[in-house]
């Protein structure tokens, strides 16, 4: 096998190269030639092609994502911002938290178990590469129609894969989402979020500084699996008959990752590391070029030193391999031995593959021959940037005009119909209990889980002495985003913000995973631009910076894109987790109070979707000032311990919130529909900025004062009762009553019946 | 009655963490000189009646879809007694 | 003198820190033990924690059994040292033949994590003296391979000798024969338990604090047996 | 180099939930007349040099202690090419 060396490239300028097969456009290929003043070697071509793929370079999204930086609120809590492996925020007492969400959508359709498993593995390595100990994971998921025959395969594989990897790593799963919609049939979304904690002094960055320092590759051996996997997969649309080519998928080894976590934290805490980087998409190409360009700008790599699982791999393949569970560290020469000792202790293989130098170039040798000689920035940062055309899709007007008004979609109008609707909605796959999913995840490991599913946010104790902790929620109603992507993204943010505040934590920072169709479709690009702008505007207004995130394009089959799905994760801090607000009421006689105002807002609602398969109209209006005021009441009420329980109102409206609280409490409530209001609208509208809170009689006057001071409308709608029954009175002059055991039976049986 | 044996193994280029773990343990137990270990699955099916060409065809297609994922695994089908 | 309770960490152990926390809350000194060491560091009792030792590849507990520290542990356990194996630790004890039977894939094939009700059926083993027989407790359960199996003769023997220490109540979460959640050896010093008492020692993070009594029990037994002075 | 294949199967009296799940799925996919399915493991060991009697003995004992659990499983060892 002959090696395409730099000198050979110089003397053979006309050699034809398969740039198109590697996903490069002719002008991109030309650009590489301009940068190098010659044709690239095959190894260089491999590096540029993976690094300039949509997945790695963000070439279509970059121009819009800049808004997150431009509009970032001045926030002293931000220690590391966008651009690093993950953002880092200060949570007080010398503690810092890093969190990020990432997608693994395409691989999870092709091989659901391994696709989802390696998705968890990838995001966890992002967190450890910041110097943090991972402490929790979450998994926002979207699947196709629950009754479609293929959905079962995907659901079972994805859930088992997330559990299989996360459980084996010893990370509690503290929340996520499970949403079904036909728009995800051939494009399930598997987003994975990881939270890590560290002391300020442990923050590490991905840069190769210090001339003469060693570059160490450690972890799993490099194999031929997943070559071009993520980058090719994530940049191609499946055609209508399913995956056109079935590219190789990586298999995860969570045990190796667990060793990698312990080993990495030990070398970091021992002060043995100058810079560190995980290997994700684009493998060694990415790690070396990013480390080099973030440091002094020069690095040399002896590629033949890389430990291989398969000795027949070519240098191009080694550069592109996306084998999992690998990391790269920059270590001063005097500490290399100590570094290797820690690796030996954890049974982790490691080898020095390179050296930092002052050349300003990234050079790679293969058995003494130079196969790469490039400016590292040109690979890692100076990829192409596209100003893709975008335009409001023509179909949107008709869809927005198609409002779910009472004359167009039949609404329940009697107590009997309300009861029937209540049970049907409780059994809607999107609203039914997710226990079948979440019981496959360990939520107890590490012993610091204060809240987990089905609570409004997951909450983790960070400091065992002081009780300082963090809460995280992820949300997105993609139907809202389909009706209005700007508002949809803001509503996703608002829901997530509210979920964090509901548990008593103060929202601090935002991460996001923007799942969209093809950026080459101007309509999709418009949705993307609107969603990013909406989210950036809301984050600025609410003083919660975006600290990082991920973009997943090409989630579409043929011409049909998924609903735009900007999943938003909000992280909050709580001084003492003992003060958290749970979702379940406990004490008969406590008042049940509705916060916020309910309008006739059913466009994009779960009711319209489940009962009428309808999607049209305009999403609920959002007033961020009101959202901030509501959060203030929820947070201060928790700190002063005057809120006994609280639950946010979102999908399925007030009715669903009451059902969920009853199911969690196992004792019931008596609710009266406020006089003069339409019971159906009160129960199933999805107006934003609302929550149900539970207040003991002794705290009522304090709570009323708190609401008045913050201008938050409150309505006492009922009280907790000892009997296990949820009773709604004044429903079209009659009473509706359902036993909690019936609700439980209905809610719990849905997912097992579909997928068990 | 016929017995059909379907062996499913990860493709050679795919990482086999279980096989690797076994290989490590073999070394610690003193079995040296083992250059590779792969761990696969074996399905033993007892099928009523004869296995004719149509039935074998059907078993083959099930082996390719249910019992293995061709993206990462290879399989063999074998009719025994 | 406070008792010293060792917690062994294998590569892939996950609940070792939790076990140490539980030991500490119970009032003992937690001593970390490392799989590759050939010493038990003079501890008075040992916990084999939950997790996925060696990734649980091959069979749960199968590879951990051959760890250097296990040689010492087997001898000490046969000599009467109190040993509690939780979940993966239980699997290691069975694979090491310190306890009879084996733990197999859950009958429903899924990993399951839930708050599990147990009925305590033994209060004479080293780890159960502070329970009442018939007492119902709720502690987390989380496993993929928790189905206890043994041949009928062994099961009958365990029953007749009072060596079933706890049984699942209500739902049998994994298909365990005779609803068995935990067993002990004939001498009563070695206990294997599938659910996780170490995750039920604090109001804030556990469903209950029912798990604490396993750890206080061993302290009581150590005193009673004169293994440590008060 | 020799290739040694170790097959490990659950003892017949031990419940095999995976086999049962496969059997159920086979029915749903239209393969009828399958009276039983058992799922086992197959280890493929590549061993340097010849497999003499001593080595085979060693592999047998490792199959009995490490690769299988005699409480619930049976195994076979087979030397291939
Ligand atoms: N895939 C999942 N993984 C973990 N937890 C989940 C998952 N899906 C849903 N949950 C949890 O179930 C609960 C209900 O979900 P959801 O109805 O989306 O909550 P909310 O409407 O309050 O955001 C939440 O606690 C959520 O975190
Ligand atoms: Mg939600």
Description:
The complex is a heterotetramer, with 1 copy of chain A (756 residues), 2 copies of chain B (81 residues) and 1 copy of chain C (230 residues). With 756 residues, chain A is an alpha+beta fold. Chain A contains 26 helices and 28 strands. In chain A, the strands form 5 sheets. In chain A, strands 8-10-7-11-9-12-13 form a 7-stranded mixed beta sheet. In chain A, strands 23-25-22-26-24-27-28 form a 7-stranded mixed beta sheet. In chain A, a hairpin with a 2-residue loop joins strand 27 and strand 28 (734-739). Residues 229-247 of chain A have low confidence and may be disordered. Chain B has 81 residues and is of the alpha+beta class. The longest helix of chain B has 15 residues, at 53-67. Chain C has one domain (4-224): Rossmann fold, CATH 3.40.50.880. Chain C has 5 helices and 11 strands. Chain C has helices at residues 16-25, 68-78, 88-95, 152-160, 212-224, and strands spanning 4-9, 29-34, 45-48, 83-86, 102-104, 112-120, 136-143, 147-149, 164-168, 180-184, 190-193. In chain C, helix 2 links the parallel strand 3 (45-48) and strand 4. Chain C starts with a strand and ends in a 6-residue tail after the last helix. Magnesium ion (MG) binds at residues 177, 475, 495, 650-651 of chain A.
Summarize this, please?
Chain A has 756 residues and is α+β, with helices and mostly antiparallel strands. Chain A is 36% helix and 22% strand.
Question: Which range does the strand content of chain A fall in?
Answer: 15-25%
End-to-end Cα distance of chain C, whole Å, is: 6 Å
| CATH class designation of chain C | Alpha Beta
The ligands bound in this entry are: adenosine-5'-diphosphate, magnesium ion
CATH topology of the domain at 1-70 and 205-383 in chain A: Phosphoribosyl-aminoimidazole Synthetase, Chain A, domain 2
CATH class term of the domain at 1-70 and 205-383 in chain A: Alpha Beta
- Categorize the overall geometry of chain A: globular
pLDDT averaged over residues of chain C: 96
User: How many structural units, i.e. domains of chain C?
Assistant: 1
Strands in their spatial order, largest beta sheet of chain C: 2-1-3-4-11-10-9-6-7
Name the CATH superfamily classification of chain C.
Answer: Class I glutamine amidotransferase (GATase) domain
Instruction: Indicate the low-confidence ranges of chain A by residue numbers.
Output: 229-247
How much is the radius of gyration of chain C in Å?
16 Å
By DSSP (H or I, 4+ residues per run), the number of helices of chain C equals 5
CATH superfamily of the domain at 1-70 and 205-383 in chain A: PurM-like C-terminal domain
Q: State the order of secondary-structure elements of chain C, H for helix, E for strand.
A: EHEEHEHEEEEHEEEH
CATH architecture of the domain at 1-70 and 205-383 in chain A: Alpha-Beta Complex
């Amino acid at each position: 096998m002959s090696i395409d060396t730099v000198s050979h490239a110089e003397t053979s300028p006309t050699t034809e190269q398969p740039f198109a097969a590697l996903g490069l456009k002719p002008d991109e290929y030309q650009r590489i030639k301009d940068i190098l003043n010659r044709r690239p070697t095959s190894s260089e071509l491999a590096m540029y092609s993976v690094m300039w793929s949509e997945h790695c370079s963000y070439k279509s999204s970059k121009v819009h994502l800049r808004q997150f930086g431009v509009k970032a609120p001045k926030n002293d809590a931000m220690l590391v911002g966008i651009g690093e492996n993950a953002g880092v925020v200060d949570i007080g007492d010398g503690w810092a938290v890093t969190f990020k969400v990432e997608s693994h959508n395409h691989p999870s359709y092709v091989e659901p178990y391994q696709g989802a498993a390696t998705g968890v593995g990838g995001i966890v390595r992002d967190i450890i590469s910041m110097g943090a100990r991972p402490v929790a994971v979450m998994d926002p998921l979207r699947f196709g129609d629950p009754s479609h025959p293929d959905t079962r395969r995907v659901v079972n594989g994805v859930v088992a894969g997330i559990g299989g990897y996360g459980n084996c790593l010893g990370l509690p799963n503290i929340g996520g989402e499970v949403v079904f919609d036909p728009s995800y049939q051939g494009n399930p979304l598997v987003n994975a979020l990881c939270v890590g904690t560290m002391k300020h002094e442990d923050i590490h960055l991905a840069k190769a500084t210090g001339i003469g320092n060693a570059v160490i590759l450690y972890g799993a051996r490099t194999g031929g699996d997943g070559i071009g996997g993520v980058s090719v997969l994530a940049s191609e649309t499946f055609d209508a008959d399913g995956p056109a080519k079935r590219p190789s998928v990586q298999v995860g080894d969570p045990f190796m990752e667990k060793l990698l976590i312990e080993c990495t934290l030990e070398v970091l805490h021992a002060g043995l590391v100058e810079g560190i980087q995980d290997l994700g998409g684009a493998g060694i190409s990415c790690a070396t070029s990013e480390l080099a360009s973030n440091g002094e700008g020069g690095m040399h790599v002896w590629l033949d030193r890389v430990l291989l699982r398969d000795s027949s791999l070519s240098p191009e393949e080694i550069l592109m391999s996306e084998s999992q569970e690998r990391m790269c560290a920059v270590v001063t020469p005097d500490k290399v031995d100590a570094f290797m000792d820690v690796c030996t202790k954890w049974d982790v293989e490691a080898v020095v593959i390179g050296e930092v130098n002052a050349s300003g170039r990234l050079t790679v040798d293969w058995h003494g021959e130079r196969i790469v000689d490039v400016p590292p920035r040109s690979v890692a940062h100076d990829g192409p940037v596209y100003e893709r055309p975008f335009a409001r899709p023509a179909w949107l007007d008709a869809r927005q005009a198609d409002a779910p008004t009472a004359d167009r979609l039949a609404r329940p109008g009697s107590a009997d119909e309300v009861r029937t609707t209540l049970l049907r909605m409780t059994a809607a796959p999107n609203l039914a209990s997710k226990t079948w999913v979440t019981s496959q995840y360990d939520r107890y490991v590490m012993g610091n889980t204060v809240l987990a599913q089905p609570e409004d946010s997951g909450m983790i104790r960070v400091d065992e002495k002081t009780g300082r902790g963090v809460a995280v929620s992820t949300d997105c109603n993609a139907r809202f985003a389909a009706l209005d992507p700007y508002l949809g993204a803001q509503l996703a943010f608002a829901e997530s913000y509210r979920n964090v505040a509901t548990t008593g934590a103060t929202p601090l920072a935002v991460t996001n995973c923007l799942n969209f169709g093809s950026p080459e479709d101007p309509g999709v690009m418009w949705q993307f631009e609107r969603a990013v702008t909406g989210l950036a505007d809301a984050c600025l207004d609410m003083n919660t910076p975006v600290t990082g995130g991920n973009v997943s394009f090409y989630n579409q089959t043929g011409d049909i894109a998924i609903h735009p799905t900007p999943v938003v994760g909000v992280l909050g801090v709580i001084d003492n987790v003992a003060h958290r607000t749970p979702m379940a009421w406990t004490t008969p006689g406590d008042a049940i109070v509705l916060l916020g105002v309910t309008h006739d807002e059913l466009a994009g609602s779960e009711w319209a979707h489940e009962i009428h398969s309808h999607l049209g109209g305009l999403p609920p209006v959002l007033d961020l000032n009101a959202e901030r005021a509501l959060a203030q009441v929820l947070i201060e009420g928790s700190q002063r311990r005057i809120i006994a329980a609280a639950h946010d109102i979102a999908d399925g409206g007030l009715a669903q919130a009451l059902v969920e609280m009853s199911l969690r409490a196992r004792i019931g409530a008596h609710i009266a529909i406020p006089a003069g209001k339409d019971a159906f609208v009160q129960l199933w509208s999805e107006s934003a900025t609302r929550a149900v809170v539970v207040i003991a009689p002794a705290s009522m006057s304090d709570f009323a004062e708190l609401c008045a001071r913050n201008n938050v409308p409150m309505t006492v709608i009922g009280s907790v009762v000892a009997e296990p029954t949820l009773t709604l009175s004044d429903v079209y002059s009659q009473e509706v009553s359902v036993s909690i055991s019936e609700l439980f039976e209905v809610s719990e049986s849905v997912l097992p019946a579909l997928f068990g | 009655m016929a017995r059909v044996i379907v062996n499913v193994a990860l493709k050679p280029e795919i990482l086999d963490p279980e096989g690797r773990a076994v290989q490590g343990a073999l070394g610690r137990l003193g079995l040296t000189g083992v250059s590779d270990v792969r761990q696969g699955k074996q399905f033993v099916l007892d099928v009523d009646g004869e296995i004719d060409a149509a039935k074998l065809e059907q078993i083959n297609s099930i082996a390719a879809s249910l019992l293995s994922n061709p993206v990462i695994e290879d399989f063999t089908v074998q009719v025994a007694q | 003198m406070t008792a010293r309770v060792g917690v062994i960490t294998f590569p892939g152990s996950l609940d070792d820190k939790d076990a140490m926390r539980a030991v500490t809350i119970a009032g003992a000194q937690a001593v970390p033990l490392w799989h590759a060491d050939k010493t038990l560091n003079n501890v008075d009792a040992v916990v084999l924690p939950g997790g996925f030792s060696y990734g649980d590849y091959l069979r749960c507990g199968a590879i951990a059994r051959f760890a250097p520290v296990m040689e010492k542990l087997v001898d000490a356990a046969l000599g009467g040292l109190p040993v509690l194996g939780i979940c993966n630790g239980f699997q290691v004890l069975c694979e090491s033949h310190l306890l009879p039977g084996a733990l197999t894939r859950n009958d429903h094939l899924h990993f399951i994590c839930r708050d599990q009700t147990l009925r305590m059926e033994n209060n004479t083993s080293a780890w159960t003296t502070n329970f009442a027989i018939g007492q119902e407790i709720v502690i987390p359960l989380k496993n993929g391979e928790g189905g206890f199996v043994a041949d009928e003769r062994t099961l009958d023997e365990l029953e007749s000798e009072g060596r079933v220490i706890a049984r699942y109540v209500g739902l049998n979460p994994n298909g365990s024969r005779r609803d068995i959640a935990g067993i002990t050896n004939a001498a009563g010093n070695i206990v294997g338990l599938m659910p996780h008492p170490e995750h039920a020692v604090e109001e804030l993070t556990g469903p209950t604090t029912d798990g604490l009594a396993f750890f206080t029990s061993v302290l009581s037994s150590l005193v009673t047996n004169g293994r440590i002075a008060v």
